[in-house]
Amino acid sequence: MMNTITPHRHIRLWQQPKPQPSQNPPRLKPFRQFPLCFSNHNSTSASTSISRDGAEEGIPNGDVKTLARFQSRHNNICVLQVSRRADHPLAGSRLLLLDKPGNIHSISHLFNPLTSSYLDVFATLPPTIPSGPIAILGFGAGSAARLILHLYPKTIIHGYELDPSVISVAREFFSLSKLEQQYRNQLSIFISDAIQSIPNLEDGFYSGILVDLYLKGSVIPQLQDMNTWKELKKKLHRNGRIMVNCGGRCVESEDPRRDGDVVKEETLKAMSEVFGEDKVFVLNLGGAKEEDSWVGLTGDWPDLEGWKGQLPSELCCYVDMWRPYKYIRDGPNNKRL
Predict the structure, then answer these.
(1) Distance of alpha carbon 133 from alpha carbon 206, whole angstroms
(2) Residues 211, 135: Cα–Cα separation, whole Å
(3) Are residue 91 and residue 153 in the same domain, yes or no?
(4) Does 323 share its domain with 204?
(5) According to the model, what pLDDT value does residue 251 have?
(6) CATH number of the domain that 235 lies in?
(7) What residues make up the domain containing 217?
(8) Which residue would you say has higher pLDDT here, 10 or 186?
(9) Where in the sequence does UniProt note compositional bias of the Pro residues kind (predicted)?
């Protein structure tokens, strides 16, 4: 059994507190705001959510330490350290939280590159694409890059991050400087707006593109625009793929008009209109739970057994969770998709 954090990049752990005289770190929200799913490696069905006894209590303040908190030009930035003694799947981890709702954008464990989140799904992409560079649009603190380079050390990665403060925090608190030194010939980071930078590259430049672009707690509006996907498609190798964090009901935006479920649907619709509805696949880490969370994938339906054969056992379970977008969209239990 594998312990999987259901929501994607935007995992709501704590609510932005009102200013208080005390400097105690914020109290993490209970599991009902942080659903978990346990996936059986031998099962082809979507994982199911469960809660533990005492989950309503969340993580006590004493098990969470605030390492940094400040306002950058683009983000509310907070770095948290969760104690190893905490009775929680995030025990021992370091977290990068952005946006006013306090959504997780990166997860780091000291001795384990796995995150038990959608970031691990991102690391399954390399076996499905031809040899060549991979772009990560929305680099964060580098959780996806770290795992990909750990599994596939010859991979060339170009990371795009809008906020220079996020990269500074990643270098100070998430060992990004060490990763850059270790993979100095493979890892390049660009402080830039990815959507504006990508069109300047030659067509067919990337074998794979990972899209993890959020702003103010929501998938950026450009990803609901067909023109964005047309431009990204141009930059793909002929047999390349795009994997994207589409969000879902788990996402909490600063703008209440940006409903996570609606934004997810509009993002997938724009993708399917550009790539074709039979060339888009979806994976829902939330199963049937209210806090569903979606990843999208473009390209032909992959050879699942061949795919699993090139992955470590901890990641094989994700392969069987993919479904054709058109079937999910038209399914009786997913009428809105």
Answers:
(1) 5
(2) 8
(3) no
(4) yes
(5) 78
(6) 3.40.50.150
(7) 118-330
(8) 186
(9) 18-28
